[in-house]
Specification:
38% helix; four-stranded parallel beta sheet; five-stranded parallel beta sheet; Rossmann fold; alpha/beta
Length: 377
């Protein structure tokens, strides 16, 4: 398949791995920000091809994982109302709140539906104006344009029965929060290519300069990620700290200007709490004043009650790259995809789910696994 198979070529993977081994002279710790990248790394066994000096840690780039418990509880509260049709991406239905999930609300009779776009929710609102249709607006910058367009279109059509429960978060503030932590061990980042395809990577240039940290924008195939590691290691070994774009086939420095402009028209930046991490200043998006009619939190008068994570769940530490999932005492025992304690075990981009799915229940250097091979168990 064009632009897929060539980025999974085993010979090219071996060549880049040899190149990395020839570059490295000292230990380095790199963080891939996006959970989708984590799954590729684990599925393809890329970490086993790297020299022992290179450590990959996993970042908070899974919007499902960082949606706070309070918002899950609010979603369940709204979805349980008889007059509401609650629409969400599928991953969110399994994320545990303080006592229930959206699946529980659906099982109890709530009209909870999986959709693939906020525009699907708009169609439902148009089709039956007697029901309130609420879309769970979760995501990083990647999904913000579609959500902004949904609010813009609803305003244009004068729809009164459509609203969104806002849970948008932004990547650069999270990277800064990690870098300013006293426990930070990250020396370079692999930045998320899908986010940068929308907003570009200009904002990352300031981070690279201020913190003297290399940032490489990478894609999601094995060759993308291994090449991103190579570029980051080359910077670290030479003492450079700039933003480089490995994912040039999809990303431009300025991103998608039309999308950026629509997002800026509908949303504004605000403080946002991240599940397991806490509040990160100016790390979220909320609806601007002229679009607040579509804010489900305001429409349904939801409370701002603070809810704590289960004490036995260390997902917040995992999301900051300070621990690996298998270092959690509950991993694979109390916490499984069937009985999750935290969101990273149920999200398709969650680090804990990746380790569980691909059998990485302990730390070890395994026989190198090439793209397309069966994961080690």
């Amino acid at each position: 398949m064009k632009f897929i198979d060539e980025y999974r070529d085993a010979a090219a993977v071996r060549r880049i791995a040899r190149n990395i081994r020839g570059l490295v002279t000292k230990p380095w710790t790199l963080m891939e920000v996006c959970g989708g990248q984590t799954h590729t790394i684990l599925k393809s066994g890329l970490q086993d091809l790297l020299p022992p000096e290179i450590t990959l840690v996993h970042g908070p780039g899974c919007p499902v994982c960082v949606t706070p418990v309070e918002l899950i509880d609010q979603a369940v509260e709204i979805a349980s109302r008889p007059e509401v049709t609650f629409c969400s991406f599928g991953d969110m239905l399994r994320v545990p709140g303080s006592s229930k999930s959206l699946f529980d609300a659906k099982a109890a009779g709530g009209d909870v539906r999986i959709v693939y776009s906020p525009l699907d929710a708009l169609k439902l609102a148009r089709a039956d104006t007697s029901r309130e249709v609420v879309f769970f607006a979760v995501g990083f910058e990647t999904t913000a344009p579609a959500n902004a367009m949904a609010a813009w279109q609803a305003a244009r059509e004068g729809l009164k029965n459509f609203s969104m429960l806002m849970a948008h978060v932004l990547v650069p503030p999270a990277m800064e929060a990690i870098l300013t932590s006293a426990d930070c061990r990250v020396q370079a980042f692999l930045a998320p290519g899908h986010v940068c395809a929308v907003v570009g990577f200009k904002e990352y240039e300031d981070i690279a300069e201020r913190f003297r940290v290399p940032i490489v924008v990478t894609g999601f195939e094995p060759l993308d990620l291994l090449d991103g590691v190579r570029m980051a290691v080359a910077q670290l070994e030479s003492g450079r700290a700039v933003v480089e774009n490995q994912y040039s086939r999809a990303v431009r420095r300025d991103g998608n200007r039309a999308a950026v402009e629509r997002v800026a028209e509908v949303f504004e930046v605000n403080h946002r709490k991240w599940r397991g991490i806490g509040e990160i200043p100016w790390s979220g998006l909320k609806l601007r004043d002229r679009y607040t009619a579509f804010d489900a939190g305001l429409k349904f008068g939801l409370s701002g009650a603070v809810v704590e994570e289960p004490s036995e769940c260390i997902s917040g530490i995992v999301l900051q790259g300070l621990r690996k999932p298998y270092e959690c005492p509950a991993f694979g025992t109390q916490c499984t995809p069937e009985t999750p304690l935290g969101a990273p075990m149920v999200s398709s981009e969650g680090a804990c789910a990746a380790y569980y799915l691909y059998g990485r229940h302990r730390e070890e250097r395994l026989q190198p696994e090439l793209p397309g091979a069966t994961p080690h168990k």
